[in-house]
Amino acid sequence: MTLSEDLLYRGLIKDTTFSDVAWLDEPKTFYLGVDCSSDSLQVGNLAIFLLAYRMRKAGWKTVLLVGGATSLIGDPGGKGEERELKSKEEIDHNVAGVSKQVANLFAGEDFVLVNNYDWFKDIGYLEFLREVGKHFSMTELVQRDFIATRMGEGGSGISYAEFSYNLIQGYDYWHLYKTEGAVLQIGGSDQWGNMLSGAPLIRKKEGAEVHAMSMPLVINKSTGVKFGKSEGGAVWLDPGKTSVYKFYQFWLNVDDESVEEYLKIFTFLDKDEIEATMAEFNRNRGSRFAQRRLTEEVTRIVHGQDALASVERITAVLFGDGSVRDMQPHDVEQMKAELPTATKSTQDSISSALVETGLASSNGEARRLIEQGGIRVNGEKLTADRAFITDDKQAAGSALLKRGKNQFAVIDIA
Fold first, then answer.
1. Dist CA 328 CA 395 (whole Å)
2. Shared domain check, 186 and 44
């Protein structure tokens, strides 16, 4: 399967400035830019970076741009109101965080990482107006959707700074055409208006034809909103912002209607593997086989095999037939970060731990739950209240309490 055929199969092509997608099958140089409004990418960003990774694997020279300059201005695309300006120090911090994540995603691959602040910091205002501004028509700019919406009736308005954002992005493309030989810019479809700035600028300045290509925004079919949100907000790639456990659970809980699309977008499984996965899934949807395959693949891509193995052990202990004895100290620490915890001595009663961790509202309720068989300690169902005793069933001096099917607490045995 050629690159263009693979991208079409996965639904990764929306808008293009070229007429024949087979143009993609002869590797050249492309660039992908991302602004750094936060110090981490979200799963919504992951889709376009995996598209870039596919192109790299197909032989394209890959230039990845972090927007140290553009982030100081703020992208008006997809926003109904003016963004709040961030300080240079905050943007520098964000650039460092995003750069590290990009490098991790492309580890072992040949790519160029650039920061547009490096060339914008020395450009004078008059120089920019003469070299770039002179080549853009105000008539054309105000008709672009994201600008027209902000300027039209009921719109919140737009500052000159955000209005100028797409000129800055056009300059990026021109710079990377001259320095890296970039002839294609890729991005999400919400960036299409901005992406249309570079090609005409390069045509006017250099007499050369270059192109742009967008991929569709990923939409949650069950909610109709942009993919990448959970009840707790955005799902981040940084484990310090979204733990590996929460990241894993997010993918495990995607809806049945969307899982095939996500397998195409967010994994490197080929067509045969995806079709085999969906066939197995459709034989018994209750098994959530497709969701489990998706979760394994994405977690491995973003966090690595060791983190995947750890979160699988945790999930098996919490929701399956996994044994606490199989857990490693790191697994227990991860569990403690997600669950209520308490420290108890070997003489303390289990009922007191249930109350302290919120699994029971009182000692009386705790004892009733135990007597009714509703409490397990390290997988063992209790029939009577007792004291904690450290034995070979304990994991690194910890015990796992479970009430019912999905209420848990971790107890450190002192």
1. 8
2. yes
| Rg value, the chain, Cα | 26
Q: What CATH number is attached to the domain comprising 287?
A: 1.10.240.10
* One-character DSSP codes across 334-369: HHHHHS-EEEE-TTSBHHHHHHHTTSSSSHHHHHHH
Structure tokens at 261: 């699309």
User: How crowded is the C-beta side of 37, counted as CA atoms within 13 Å?
Assistant: 10
pTM of the model: 0.89
Asked if 56 and 62 touch (Cβ cutoff 8 Å), the reply is: yes
Q: Is residue 223 part of a domain?
A: no
Tell me the C-alpha to C-alpha distance, in Å, between residue 43 and each of 78, 106, 251, 371, 407. Answer: 17, 16, 10, 44, 27
- Choose one of 303, 324, 353: the last residue of a domain: 303
With residue 177 as reference, give the H or E element that holds it.
Answer: helix 165-180
> Residues 252, 295: contact at Cβ < 8 Å?
yes
The parent domain of residue 273 ranges over 229-303
Domain shared by 184 and 284, yes or no: no
Does residue 44 share a domain with residue 160?
Answer: yes
Beta strands across the sheet bearing 112-115: 112-115, 61-67, 29-35, 184-188, 211-215
How far apart are the C-alpha atoms of 214 and 206, rounded to whole Å? 23
Residues 23 and 83 placed together within one structural domain of the fold: yes
Can you give the pLDDT of all 414 residues of the chain as single tens digits?
A: 999 999 999 999 999 999 999 999 999 999 999 999 899 999 989 999 999 999 999 999 999 999 999 998 877 765 656 667 889 999 999 999 999 999 999 999 999 999 999 999 999 989 988 998 888 877 777 776 667 776 766 666 677 778 788 899 999 999 999 999 999 999 999 888 889 899 999 999 999 999 999 999 998 777 777 787 665 688 999 999 999 999 999 999 999 999 999 999 999 999 999 999 999 999 999 999 999 999 999 999 999 999 999 999 999 888 887 777 778 888 888 888 999 999 988 888 899 999 999 999 998 999 999 999 999 888 888 888 888 765 544 444 778 899 988 899 998 887
Question: In the listed set 280, 303, 326, which residue is the last one of a domain according to the structure?
Answer: 303
